[in-house]
Amino acid sequence: xxxxxxxxxxxxxxxxxxxxxxxxxxxxxxxxxxxxxxxxxxxxxxxxxxxxxxxxxxxxxxxxxxxxxxxxxxxxxxxxxxxxxxxxxxxxxxxxxxxxxxxxxxxxxxxxxxxxxxxxxxxxxxxxxxxxxxxxxxxxxxxxxxxxxxxxxxxxxxxxxxxxxxxxxxxxxxxxxxxxxxxxxxxxxxxxxxxxxxxxxxxxxxxxxxxxxxxxxxxxxxxxxxxxxxxxxxxxxxxxxxxxxxxxxxxxxxxxxxxxxxxxxxxxxxxxxxxxxxxxxxxxxxxxxxxxxxxxxxxxxxxxxxxxxxxxxxxxxxxxxxxxxxxxxxxxxxxxxxxxxxxxxxxxxxxxxxxxxxx
Length: 359
Known about the structure:
Elements: H1 5-12, H2 20-31, H3 39-55, H4 59-79, E1 87-91, H5 101-115, E2 119-122, H6 128-136, E3 141-146, E4 164-167, H7 170-179, E5 183-186, H8 191-205, E6 214-217, H9 224-237, E7 250-253, H10 256-266, E8 270-276, E9 279-284, H11 290-299, E10 310-312, E11 328-332, H12 339-349
Parallel strand pairs: 1-2, 1-5, 2-3, 3-4, 5-6, 6-7
Antiparallel strand pairs: 8-9, 9-11, 10-11
Helix pairs in contact: 1-3, 2-3, 5-6, 5-10
């Protein structure tokens, strides 16, 4: 459904004293660039605040809204400087001691990711978080800390630097852990780690978050993630609560090098996705040859609600992202349901033998 900002204003801002919609439009025009495609969105943000003021919500509701807007705007502003760098969010226990094998593994992971040109995001605490930042180094580290009256102070790698963001609300911190991530690596941890892992899987499985690699990293002789996967297969897949293809959304590895290879392989040809006019567009570094397109139509027909897979160049509707103009698009009417199968399709796109010129 097309977004109709003016209709929103007329329906949701009602006052007999002034034309509030016009006042809001005038205010936005004073501060927003006139050519900005976001102008209707800014008007609606202010309209939402005006509606809350009209209703005169209780003070706690108003403070939640204010804190949320402030934290998000500050985070957007801070992260703008790192916008063009791919990032990997690393989760794991803050209680992991330095002498534990998982600490060494996480530190090595940070080193591998930095060597690949990737930034490492953690919760900025100790244990696994400190280890990953140690390996990556300050210039390749970002910390998303949570403000608490006890414990959880920022680790010395990012503490006191511009690479640290502090959040008052857990839900906003969780949002940015996923929003900024081009991949996620989960080391062994407690309730918080499992909470993040299951939430990320839910977001990607339901299409609420873009498809990215989800990697479960464990020591070679440990069974932490093996036992978790066994439970998921037997109790979730076995009871038909998830599809068998949903298991493709995560990969178990036992070394930092394997984790790095999984991430690099995912982006070998696949770049990113975008919805446009009801179709999912997959941006690719290399176009596919005709035989690969025919295979897609045959082997992945179940992902298309209608039509077939089409390769196409950038169109005028994508002019808001000029940095991706030269990439080939694979367009199809995705059913928006089978994201595990979509991961299998991405694996197919990343095989060099399927690229034009490599057949």
